[in-house]
Amino acid sequence: MIFRLIGESFRFAADALRQNKLRTMLSLLGITIGIFTIIAVFSGVDTLRNKLQESVDKLGSNTLFVQKWPWGFGGDYPWWKYINRPDPSIRDYEALKERMGNVDGISFEASASNRTIKYRSSSVNGVTLNAGTQDYDKTWTLDFQEGRYFTESEGKSGAPVTIIGADVASGLFNGESAVGKQIKVMGRRLTIVGVFKKEGEDMIGMSQDKNVLIPLNLARGLFDVQNGNYGPQITVRGKANIPLEEVESELEGAMRSIHRTKPGAEEDFALNKTTMISNQLDMMFKMVRIAGWVIGGFSILVGGFGIANIMFVSVKERTNIIGIQKSLGAKNYFILLQFMFEAVALCVLGGLLGLFLVYSLTLVFTYVVKVEVVLYMKNVIMGIGISVVIGMISGFWPAFSASRLDPVEAIRS
After folding, report:
1. How many CB atoms sit inside 10 A of residue 302's CB?
2. For the chain, which residues make up each domain, given as ranges?
3. In this structure, what is the dihedral angle of CA atoms 149, 150, 151, 154, given to the nearest 10 degrees?
4. Which positions of the chain have pLDDT values less than 50?
5. pLDDT of 317
6. Which residue of 81, 235, 307, 399 is 20 to 30 Å from 275, comparing CA positions?
């Protein structure tokens, strides 16, 4: 019985929408624009957020960085508190290796940016030269398209070997195998033992495509790896089954002990972690989402009033039909459902049209502008859900007033 009533209500609603096509389309505009605005903003925000998070995840969710400078995100940065801190040293690294237990790997790293790599008459500019100790492959996730990582003996002896990024290999060798060839880095000839797998463009510059990696003991003969100009840091990756807070607490205690920091005194080092970036991203995108709700919300509000107005007009036009239905035994809830479904159907049509426009926009960005934007299923569901709720709210009072009409007065009108 209930399903039959719902089916009949849908038929009445569909007939009313078909008979007033122009009015229906004009009524849809407010909802369409509102849903389009909200879902377009959310799709752009979610796509950007996920891209940034993918870049952040490359750092490792259970990875800590011992550095001189704490990561800062806008606002007043008290640089004067940190300027006199010492840079992380090899001595700190060696002491941590002896003291830390809940870790998979600890590495000391330094990097020299904007270098030129040469092979015969070919060269690649703007390359970042990274130097790391043997556990570098344990603190960072490295994928190879060719070759291998450094052996233990190569790392300890500072052998003249290197691993290069995919863009560097492409620029120097133009598709040929790179392993075994010798390149010139900072005046030294180095033999390539591996090539990193191509990762593509990265939102925060974490791609290995234009990087070159050498053993730290080799780098010590090329530049001062403990000099602050080369960004020395100690990277610590905790064990997967150990909470990051526990690893951080152990690392903080070990560093305070190594630096002989007195109880209650402020640390002279910074422990940075990826959750700091993730939290900042959440705060930033939360504000953008609120802006999307405000902008789209006004449009949806106007659209909702438009739907309610059209529904009152529809009730007025069909008053005598309502009277005939009620005189033939139609219950109040049947009349209520009939107009409620009509209002919901209007809003859902508007919402679907808005979603179609968003999807079309994502295709334009992805294939024409070459910037990938994704319409996620959660946003599709949210768009339809908002449409249904607005339809129920804007259609309730007109539907309720229709259901309360007196059949004799309604037929007479």
Report:
1. 15
2. 2-55+279-412, 86-268
3. 170
4. none
5. 80
6. 81
Q: What is the pLDDT of residue 285?
A: 82
Please report where in the chains the tokens 């925000």 appear, as a residue: 45
Instruction: Look at residue 112 in the predicted model and tell me its pLDDT.
Output: 93
The dihedrals phi and psi of 144, each to the nearest 5 degrees, come to -110, 135
Token pair for residue 149? 């990582």
Strand-pair partners of 238: 103
What are the angstrom distances between the C-alpha of 117 and each of 121, 171, 173, 187, 220?
11, 10, 12, 9, 18
Please give the Cα distance from 64 to 243 (Å, whole number). 12
User: What is the gyration radius of the CA atoms in the chain, in angstroms?
Assistant: 32
Burial of 83 (0-12, 13-18, 19+ CB in 10 A): exposed
CA–CA separation, 382 and 380 (whole Å): 5
Q: Cα(100)–Cα(97) distance, rounded to whole angstroms? A: 6
The rounded distance, in Å, linking the Cα atoms of 345 and 353 is 12
Q: Residue 265: its pLDDT value, please?
A: 87
Residue reference for tokens 């290999």: 169
pLDDT at 127: 93
Taking only the tens place, the pLDDT of each residue in 290-330 is 888 888 888 888 888 888 888 888 788 878 888 887 888 77
Rounded to a whole number of angstroms, the distance between the first and last alpha carbons of the chain is: 30
The Cα–Cα gap between 253 and 100 comes to 10
Q: How far apart are CA 203 and CA 56, in angstroms?
A: 9
Q: What is the Cα–Cα distance from 190 to 398, expressed in whole angstroms?
A: 80
